[in-house]
Amino acid sequence: MKLLQDKTALITGASRGIGRRHALLFAEEGANIIFTDLKANEQSDSLLEELRAKGVRADFVASNASDFAQAQEVAAWVAEHYGRLDVLVNNAGITRDQLILRMSVEDWNLVLEVNLRSVFNYTKAFAPMMMRQRSGSIVNISSIVGLNGNAGQCNYAASKAGIIGFTRSIAKELGSRGIRCNAVAPGFIETPMTQQLSEEVRKEWMKQIPLHRGGLDTDVAHVSLFLASDLAGYVTGQVISCDGGLAIN
Ligand code: NAD
Q: Is 122 a catalytic residue?
């Protein structure tokens, strides 16, 4: 039996990167997939094709996760077309790095809106459906930076730390309705963003990681898969780091 057989999962910001890997892995584990991103493009088209080729039901909805009304529309669409949601992965996220003295209020607001407000928007939009079902698993993608902070990323760190407080609160609030809410805190993950770093910077990072390698998008998706599945039926309000041990330094 596959871990998410016949469950329905929604992943925000999943056309590429870590979210895309979640969609593919969850589909391999039997889940029907709805994924969102800002707009349709080649990446969303190809993901849709790959998902359907795995034999599951899949749909893409273009939607800005930081927009409250659009999240409500997505929930209404899912209610009409799928009738339920078992797993919600709040993955959409951005960075606008800058030292505090140079950070603009626009970049502060944008990062908080996309990274944190989106988690509120989607949780609020889908909580009523999950409460009626008396089941559901919400997985929020935070970051090691939300636990430890990082110079030059105060907006991103605040948004990712906010996700952790939100996750623990929702776990307490909705646990009695059979809804679990957890967070994953990825560390240094090999993505186009981190591949742009100089060899010197990468070497410095590797030295600090006990497992001596960057993480893969699959490493993160595996942790989320566990949290999404019934294997984690007694796990809620937790933040699981997926960082090769970086945070224990
Ligand atoms: P990515 O930039 O490759 O992918 C993010 C996706 O989100 C993109 O497809 C983008 O279009 C979409 N998106 C952006 N704003 C959106 C919005 N308002 N509404 C809907 N979709 C939107 O990033 P990634 O590296 O795959 O990161 C995914 C998540 O993992 C983010 O929350 C990020 O903060 C977190 N994370 C990443 C790393 C890392 O090393 N890459 C480490 C820790 C945490």
A: no
Domain 8-248 homologous superfamily, CATH: NAD(P)-binding Rossmann-like Domain (3.40.50.720)
Structure tokens of 85?
């949601």
pLDDT tens track of the chain, all 249 residues? 899 999 999 999 999 999 999 999 999 999 999 999 999 999 999 999 999 999 999 999 999 999 999 999 999 999 999 999 999 999 999 999 999 999 999 999 999 999 999 999 999 999 999 999 999 999 999 999 999 999 999 999 999 999 999 999 999 999 999 999 999 999 999 987 677 788 888 888 899 999 999 999 999 999 999 999 999 999 999 999 999 999 886
3-class SS string, 18-67: HHHHHHHHHHHCCCEEEEEECCCCHHHHHHHHHHHHCCCCEEEEECCCCC
Q: Which of ligand 1's atoms lies nearest the C-alpha of 92?
A: 7
* Maximal C-alpha separation, the chain: 54
Catalytic residue among 82, 122, 156, 234: 156
Nearest CA to ligand 1 atom 32: 93
Probe residue for ligand 1, chosen from 74, 94, 239, 243 as the CB with the greatest number of ligand atoms within 8 Å: 94
Residue ranges per domain, the chain?
8-248
Atom number, ligand 1, closest to the C-alpha of residue 189? 40
